Amino acid sequence: MAKGGASESKTSKRMLLAIDKRVQALALRKAGVGFERIGQQLGCATSTAYQSVMKAIQDILQEPAEEVLKLELERLDSMLLGLWERARSGDYQAVATALKVEERRAKLLGLDAPEKSETSAHIEVSFVPIGGNGNDKGNGGNGNGRKNKK
């Protein structure tokens, strides 16, 4: 299998060693050790030590987020189940509520296509001559390059 490939098993020896290094790197970082020193202790570059710590933190945060999503989807399933028979029998209020539940489910799962929006603007540009050569009617000129006589 390819190194780091998507088809590599999460329990392969290489993946387990990488996880172990992440755990060690995070423990060292929690203890106040700098990334350079973490890299030295783990036998890797400073940038790799940093990436290991960041990946460990990401993994810690991702698992609860996935659990929250699962819980929310289960709640929506339960709500929909309670509405389903009434909605199927033609209860308009139950149909409207069921649609709102389904909209929430689609939003949580990212199933809806992004909404398109249009923006337009009108830009007007005008040029003002510098130095007053008499062409500017507002500065005593008559528009033909000569000054008006007073």
Summarize the topology.
Layout lengths: L12 H18 L4 H8 L3 H43 L3 H18 L41
Helix pairs in contact: 1-2, 1-3, 2-3, 3-4
How would you characterize this protein structure?
The protein is an all-alpha fold and 150 residues long. It has a domain at 13-110. The protein has helices spanning 13-30, 35-42, 46-88, 92-109. Helix 1 crosses helix 3. The longest helix has 43 residues, at 46-88. The radius of gyration is 33 Å and the shape is flat.
Q: Classify the secondary structure makeup into a structural class.
A: mainly alpha
Instruction: Tell me the Rg in angstroms.
Output: 33 Å
The tally of beta strands, per DSSP, is 0
Oligomer classification? single chain
Number of helices: 4
The level of helicity is: 55-70%
- Form type: flat
Distance between the termini: 92 Å
State the low-pLDDT regions, or none: none
What proportion strand? under 5%
For the largest beta-sheet, the strand count, sense and barrel status come to: none
SSE arrangement, N to C: HHHH
Mean pLDDT score: 82
